[in-house]
Amino acid sequence: MSLIDSVSLPRSLRLPRVDGLIQWIVPLAIIAIWQVASVTGFVPTRVLPAPSDVLLAGWQLLLSGELVRNIWVSFWRASIGFLIGGSIGFAFGLANGLSQLSAKLTDTTLQMVRNVPHLALIPLVILWFGIDESAKLFLVALGVFFPIYLNTLHGIRTVDPQLIEMGRIYGMTDGELFRRVIFPGALPSIFVGIRFALGIMWLTLIVAETIAASSGLGYMAMQAREFMLIDVVVLSILIYALLGKLADSASRVLERLTLSWHPAFQKR
Amino acid sequence: MQTALRTSLPETEIASRANFAPHARVVREERPVQASGLPLSIRGLRKSYGDNEVLRGIDLHIPAGQFVAIVGKSGCGKSTLLRLIAGLEKFDAGSISLGDAVKPEDIRVMFQEPRLLPWARVLSNVEVGLGRDRASSDAHSRAEKALTEVGLADKRDQWPSVLSGGQKQRVALARALVSRPRVLAFDEPLGALDALTRISMQRLLERVWRDQGFTAILVTHDVAEAVALADRVLVIEEGRIAHDVVVNTGRPRQRGSAELAGLEGSILSHLLSADDRT
What we know:
Number of strands of chain A: 0
Order of helices and strands of chain A: HHHHHHHHHH
Number of strands of chain B: 9
Oligomer: heterodimer
Distance between the termini of chain B: 76 Å
Radius of gyration of chain B: 21 Å
Low-confidence stretches of chain A: 1-14
Strand content of chain A: under 5%
Shape of chain A: globular
Order of helices and strands of chain B: HEEEHEEHHHEHEHEEH
Low-confidence stretches of chain B: 1-34
């Protein structure tokens, strides 16, 4: 084998990994600067604890099992709320995209509800559900509903009418037309809705958990504030950031798997 | 090791090419005899959109298997006529009859845009053309045969987005052919292609038409294309058939021959003189 052959192959494998690392340079640099600033006393630890202290606090909470339990509770609330709100939003999006009657009947109402900030309902929700699980699920589901509803509706309405005409000419039944033309055509837009919804999902959950909860990451942060445990407060915030990133990556992977036909997702 | 691989490659290629020709012949012999064209009779056909009367009484008979080209200025109603024949729209008055029992799969349309499903591989796009036979067990092999006919068998697992404009239009042709239609309506199918691709597509259209014997109706604004392909050229002006020109030149036709050029010139002068009158 020639030298060029043996060099070029590993290189093509390595390139994407380097690309994957580039995005972590900035966060790691920020943490490094932060650590140095804390150790040298430039930033007092009462304001911001050193990353090492945050890590230590995380380790202790991990050992006591408290961290895992709280992350699990938050994760569970987020996903169940997302599933409920997302499915209802998707169902309404489909119904209103496919049926004029359904759209006339419900779209105006939904648009009115959409303009109420869902977090403004917290006092009402607490009165209805107390600080029960259902309060958090309700708020997350409500927050997630609208981006998914709007983008599903938009996706279905903007499917190329020429393709629909083609499907009809070639004798597709309504079911086939939906499965083979309308749904795949709406999918890119639906994914935009999912990405928006994931952001709103975490936002809603944090607010709901800091105001009314007896477990979860937001609750953990509020408890820590009561006891002036600033390292735990910072830890919770960082975990939120990581979970948000995780949810976003998951939706990207899903997007790449289902939209492999789309020129934007094809590798050369 | 690598040199061994390199020498072995051309051998397999030659072998596959050697197999190709007899295989293609087998495909043709298997074809059902039924796949002949349908005759088409149109009487007093009228269509208007609101106050705008697009077709003002069209009377036309097309014998089975004829290749008819329809030319005219934009807005003359030629595309509307095609859409009515294909059953895409309803007409206001008159009749269109297509002979004996017609199934939906017997009439196919090819548009200026390929209209391929971007999310389906090339082969499944062709399978769409099978209509109600999509679910049948031989759907795959029929679609593959149609792809081979347009020379794109090797692209079966590609996404449409990686194909060139001409290749997309060939996939659309395969999709239209796969159900063995008896009438094939073309709505300026080559309008968006570059000059060279256009000529090779015209040859392909002529070849499949001769092979399969369907009745072909081609709407085009390119008079040269019309006289090169068709047995008969209809000139439509203001919603009526203004001229019905028979092209007697034998096939295969010599593109750019004096005979075709003369015919093209006289049809063009018809079209342009109508312009002067208005």
